[in-house]
């Protein structure tokens, strides 16, 4: 893992954007995209740029179960507002959280990933070390799956909702196996709240109890952290 320390999220977004530009210049065609507050500055950089995405494909990590695409808490809506409204992609994929058959939807999404191998994957990290919505205890071998969100994640994500009761209890997430197949992974983390997860991800054992620790086994990972997120590292 290569670790890049930055002053703040804005600089982190600039660094991630410059990595993306390099990879696109080298032929990257498919981006794995993430939601949450962490990648916002990265999306700002993309929106401000004149980089052309009309030949690019995007595949998102996850979506809540039960939220329609036009619900302002859905990840469809997030991507529309923060990126797709400003930049047109050739094709963009997200799991359908309203699918009537969720198992069938996970198979469809696996097919999407198989047909569009990810060149450049953006990741944030949960306080408990989750990536996408792969919660602690998730097998490293799973592909797309339906997740029961942990109390910790529901609480953390409730800041975006009117009330904690409005936070969906389930999500559809790309699996760890699929994330690990990305050619390059850029994980960003900012703030003290992420310090422990970052320490365990980088310095702890590779264990399903801390899903992000699997990244130690990937040959091409860049971790972008601010001082607070890096504060527990030896
Ligand atoms: C959610 C998302 C993750 C994200 C994490 C951290 O649970 N599914 O993809 O990395 O939250 O969110 P934030 O970036 O807001 O701290």
From TrEMBL:
Entry's Gene Ontology molecular function annotations: glucosamine-6-phosphate deaminase activity; identical protein binding
Gene Ontology BP, a term: carbohydrate metabolic process
Pathway named in the protein's UniProt entry: Amino-sugar metabolism; N-acetylneuraminate degradation; D-fructose 6-phosphate from N-acetylneuraminate: step 5/5
Matching SUPFAM superfamilies: NagB/RpiA/CoA transferase-like
Membership in a protein family: Belongs to the glucosamine/galactosamine-6-phosphate isomerase family. NagB subfamily.
Annotated active site: 62 (proton acceptor), 128 (for ring-opening step), 130 (proton acceptor), 135 (for ring-opening step)
Keywords assigned by UniProt, alphabetized: Carbohydrate metabolism, Hydrolase
Enzyme class, broadest EC rank: hydrolase
Superkingdom of origin organism: Bacteria
Annotated signal sequence range: none
Protein name from the UniProt record: Glucosamine-6-phosphate deaminase
Catalytic activity: alpha-D-glucosamine 6-phosphate + H2O = beta-D-fructose 6-phosphate + NH4(+)
CDD domains reported for this sequence: GlcN6P_deaminase (cd01399)
E.C. number: 3.5.99.6
The encoding gene: nagB
Keyword match Hydrolase: yes
A GO-annotated cellular component: cytoplasm
Annotated function: Catalyzes the reversible isomerization-deamination of glucosamine 6-phosphate (GlcN6P) to form fructose 6-phosphate (Fru6P) and ammonium ion.
One Pfam family it belongs to: Glucosamine_iso
Domain Glucosamine/galactosamine-6-phosphate isomerase: 25-219
């Amino acid at each position: 893992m290569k670790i890049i320390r930055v002053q703040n999220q804005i600089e982190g977004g600039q660094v991630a954007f410059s990595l993306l530009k390099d990879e696109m210049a080298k032929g990257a065609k498919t981006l794995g995209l993430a939601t949450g507050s962490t990648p916002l500055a990265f999306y700002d950089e993309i929106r401000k740029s004149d980089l052309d995405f009309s030949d690019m494909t995007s595949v998102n990590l996850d979506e809540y179960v039960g939220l329609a695409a036009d619900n302002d808490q859905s990840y469809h809506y997030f991507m529309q507002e923060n990126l797709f409204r400003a930049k047109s992609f050739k094709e963009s994929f997200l799991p359908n959280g309203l699918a009537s058959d969720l198992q069938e939807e996970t198979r469809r999404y696996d097919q999407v990933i198989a047909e569009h191998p990810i060149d450049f994957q953006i990741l944030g990290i949960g306080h408990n070390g989750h990536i996408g919505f792969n919660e602690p205890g998730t097998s490293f071998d799973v592909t797309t799956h339906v997740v029961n969100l942990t109390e910790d994640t529901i609480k953390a994500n409730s800041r975006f909702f009117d009330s904690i009761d409005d936070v969906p209890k389930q999500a559809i997430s790309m699996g760890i196996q699929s994330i690990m197949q990305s050619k390059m992974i850029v994980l960003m983390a900012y703030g003290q709240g992420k310090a422990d997860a970052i320490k365990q991800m980088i310095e702890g054992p590779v264990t399903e109890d801390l899903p992000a620790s699997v990244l130690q086994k990937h040959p091409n990972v860049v971790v972008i952290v601010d001082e607070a997120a890096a504060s527990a590292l030896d």
